[in-house]
Design goal:
With about 350 residues, the chain is α/β, with parallel strands linked by helices. The chain has twelve helices and eleven strands. Helix 4 packs across helix 5. It binds guanosine-5'-triphosphate (GTP) and magnesium ion. The site of guanosine-5'-triphosphate (GTP) has 22 residues, from helix 6.
């Protein structure tokens, strides 16, 4: 299947690097043009390069799912558990005890079907449908309450000038961490007039540092790149007087123990007030659950969801939230910096999960 995607970056080279990084070296440039990217206060109203790239999904290397790991005890157990669940489900359907056999009527049925269509797991959709009831008159109100209860309480970053808060984003590659850091930096520095510092530990790829440096320069906020624990300590000293310090980390293959150990060490030195695990809502739900298992032990205490604009299954938000006790911090809904971000306490979860 062909996938066509647009990449916008300050330069042709950077856009190309982004495209090839995400879609693989064989991706074809279909078109390139200059575009003006608008934004708040005209600050981002600058000319950027947009490249449109086509790639064969079957052959896209860097973003295609990782090959199945060699079987080991844990994997086998997981596989067996999944098989057992599938067999039980089939048996339930056969004997009329499965969810699909429950006679659903009226609003209840509508809610169930719409939630499932948006990727909410069947059991949760059924429960929410039941709680909404069959009468649509106050069903939606009840549903709203339930969704707010399940997805909230959200937790906006509460900044007090002079009291530094450190916020780090971690998560799989390409989910939108750096873009979200740029949005948050712009929002807090420009809209709230707070003093913001940036630290990036993603120094492995030159393009990644340059991506953040570009935003830092535009915003006029300092960027510290850190490679070693000593540099981290130095960056923390240098940013002591800021109101907010945002820490970007490189996306990593969570199945690589060495890379995860590096991240654990980094977080142990930084000790962020908020550590957000970032999920893309356009990602495969199974990958998301796996990421949850690997990242949670690192001290994650917030969830952030990106790419709501591209999400075919925003229900992932609920499925993840139900497996994890931590509140949602932010939801992002587009590539535009700094506009396309929403503090979760402003989110209309009913609209997100049920549509209009
Ligand atoms: N549609 C959409 N695209 C987004 C959103 N947030 C980020 N992106 C895009 O996702 C791509 C990857 O974004 P990055 O911010 O570089 O992702 P990252 O997590 O820092 O990536 P790594 O550092 O490589 O792990 C870019 O093309 C972004 O423009 C969003 O909310 N919606
Ligand atoms: Mg990044």
């Amino acid at each position: 299947m062909m996938q066509v995607k647009r990449f916008v970056a300050p330069s042709y080279a950077e856009a190309l690097i982004k495209a090839k990084h995400e879609l693989g070296v064989d991706a074809l440039i279909v078109e390139s043009k200059k575009v003006r990217v608008g934004g708040v206060l005209g600050l981002f109203g600058k000319v950027m390069t947009e490249v449109t790239v086509a790639s064969d999904l079957a052959g896209a290397p860097s973003r295609s799912p990782a090959p199945a790991p060699a079987p080991n005890q844990a994997n086998l157990e997981r596989e067996i558990a999944a098989l057992r669940a599938a067999v039980t489900k089939l048996a339930e359907r056969e004997h009329g005890t499965g969810h699909r056999q429950v006679p659903l009527t009226g609003y209840h049925r509508k809610v169930f079907e719409e939630l499932v269509a948006r990727g909410v797991e069947e059991a949760a959709a059924l429960d929410l449908g039941r709680r909404a009831g069959s009468d649509s008159t106050d069903g939606r109100r009840r549903l709203r309450q339930e969704l707010d209860r399940l997805l909230g309480p959200s937790s906006p970053t509460d900044l007090v000038p002079g009291q530094r808060q450190v916020l780090a984003l971690v998560g799989p590659t390409g989910v939108g961490k750096t873009t979200t850091i740029a949005k948050l930096a712009a929002r807090f520095a420009l809209e709230q007039g707070l003093s913001v510092g940036l630290i990036t530990a993603d120094t492995f790829r030159i393009a990644a540092v340059e991506q953040l440096r570009t935003y830092a320069e535009i915003l006029g906020v300092p960027l510290h790149t850190v490679d070693t624990p000593a540099q981290v300590a130095e960056a923390l000293r240098a940013t002591a007087a800021h109101d907010l310090v945002l820490v970007d980390t490189g996306g990593r293959n969570h199945k690589d123990p060495a890379r995860m150990a590096e991240l654990r060490e980094l977080l142990a030195v930084i000790r962020p007030d908020e550590t957000h695990l970032v999920f893309s809502l356009s990602a495969n739900p199974r990958d998301a659950f796996e990421a949850l298992d690997y990242y949670m032990p690192l001290g994650v205490n917030r969830l952030t969801f990106t790419k709501l604009d591209e999400a075919s299954s925003p229900g992932l938000m609920l499925n993840v939230r139900m497996r994890c006790p931590h509140p949602i911090g932010y939801i992002t809904c587009g590539q535009s910096v700094p506009d396309d971000i929403l503090s979760a306490d402003r989110a209309d979860f009913t609209k997100i999960l049920l549509g209009a």
